[in-house]
């Protein structure tokens, strides 16, 4: 039986080693990019999400304040990419699967989320191409890790995306 990490790697097309390459350098992405870059990335991302043309996708975020979503994301990214544990200090352990359990984290939603994240990465100043690649690999793997976790709560859901078997 596949682990969640193995499923995430299969569906995302990103190996675990590539997904966690953000941990492999002597200088962390946080040290390289700084807090403001993560704030800018998260602001850019959630501006796109909350303005998404697809109502089904916007509805996933309807019960969250945009400012709270931005803060949660940049604090998590800061912590996960080598910075201070801002998210854990304020909210406790990230527990991504548990925190995302109330939401429909489908393949389609993951693909849409990744579309907006790629756009945000591409338009956020001060992120070099190597950092973008490492971050996007991490984001793809993590998005599909959450899809695999979502399937644990609803194993009969369909998988309507290009990664479906």
From TrEMBL:
Family: Belongs to the truncated hemoglobin family. Group II subfamily.
Pfam families cross-referenced by the UniProt entry: Bac_globin (PF01152)
Keyword Magnesium: no
Keywords: Heme, Iron, Metal-binding, Oxygen transport, Transport
Entry-linked Gene3D superfamilies: Globins (1.10.490.10)
UniProt KW Metal-binding keyword: yes
Protein known as: Two-on-two hemoglobin-3
């Amino acid at each position: 039986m596949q682990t969640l990490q193995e499923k995430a790697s299969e569906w995302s097309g990103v190996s675990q080693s590539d997904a966690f390459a953000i941990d492999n350098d002597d200088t962390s992405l946080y040290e390289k990019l700084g807090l403001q870059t993560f704030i800018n990335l998260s602001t850019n991302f959630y501006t796109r999400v909350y303005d998404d043309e697809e109502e089904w996708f916007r509805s996933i975020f309807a019960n969250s304040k945009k400012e709270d979503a931005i803060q949660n994301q940049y604090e998590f990214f800061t912590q996960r990419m080598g910075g201070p544990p801002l998210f854990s200090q304020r909210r406790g352990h990230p527990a991504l699967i548990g925190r995302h359990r109330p939401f429909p984290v489908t393949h389609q939603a993951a693909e849409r989320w990744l579309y907006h994240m790629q756009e945000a990465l591409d338009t956020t100043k001060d992120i070099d191409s190597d950092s973008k690649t490492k971050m996007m690999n991490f984001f793809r793997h993590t998005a599909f890790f959450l899809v695999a976790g979502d399937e644990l709560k609803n194993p009969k859901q369909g998988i309507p995306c290009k990664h479906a078997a």
